[in-house]
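Please check this.
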Amino acid sequence: MLKPYNWQQDDWLQFKYNKELAEEVLQLFSANTGYLKGFQDGLSDEEQLESLIKLMMKEALKTSIIEGEVLSKKDVLSSIKKKLGILHSSEKLKDKKAEGVAELMVDVRKTFKSPLSEEMLFRWHKKLMLGSNDVLIGGYRNHTEPMQVISGAMGKIKVHFEAPPSIAIPLEMSRFISWFNETENEISNPVLRAALTHLYFESLHPFEDGNGRIGRVLAEKALSQGLGSPVLFSLSAAIESDKKAYYQSLQKAQTSNEVSKWLKYFNSMVLKAQELAKEEVKFTVKKSQFFKAYNHLLNNRQLKAVNRMFEEGPEGFEGGMNTAKYMGITKASKATSTRDLQEAKELGWFLQSGGGRSTSYQLNL
């Protein structure tokens, strides 16, 4: 009988992989971890907090984008600040999903040392599904129809993967939770354990919805436990940069329990996430230096525009700042906006690109 999926095969959970590859990536991961921690330790307390908030916000936004959901950046940020106790507001957030995902990010970081449990998974699922009312929330799926990953229009549907039937999930998840907790001591390579954790969980697909996001959270928990502290990077930011490669790698890995190719892919995402985090930390330092040099010289309009530009992070303000955008952000007249931008350029705050109607500006960092 054909057994196309990993969980159907006789060697299920007997994961095999290239041990030299695992060792190689551990060395790179460890070196990057030390480098990144050195950068973080060089930040002031205020800068470290800002860096942490940005990290959690990016993870919340990117893990949702991977699944095709665009959240309110403002509501994600407000919710994270509330859960960290640095924003006290009775204002209710409009985007419940943003609120739930943000709460999940904070919970994961605060409880990374705690053993995994069914109660923890259900709590995470409830937060993740906040605002949803069309799926079973806070419990494993129980429908009788197959849990499949599919694509294509009606009549041309392609099945990429089929998970174990719902009736088998309680027992399979009990085994998964035990495996996760036991391997904290058995697998000393945090990247290897995180890669196996994500693949194992995604192959079970235990919830009606939210499996990808919780699977990435579990990978983060495994990495954090291996490091002894919460990770300083966003795995989802790296994955989201090429979602197609992520899904293709995962689906190929779910056809066999020889997982070297999956490990190689996952390794590359962890290392990319670390590189992106380095850029974020460097950007935070440059932002601090910019305001130390110019904050007392910026008028209120310029300060508002500059803060908006900094919100975009290392990628920069898309398309650059121009007169029309400046007017929209500051509500200033065209003449005032043109004068403010010209002054910012002359004083070295902005770098100009183009000319005439195509003139735009980026921060000079």
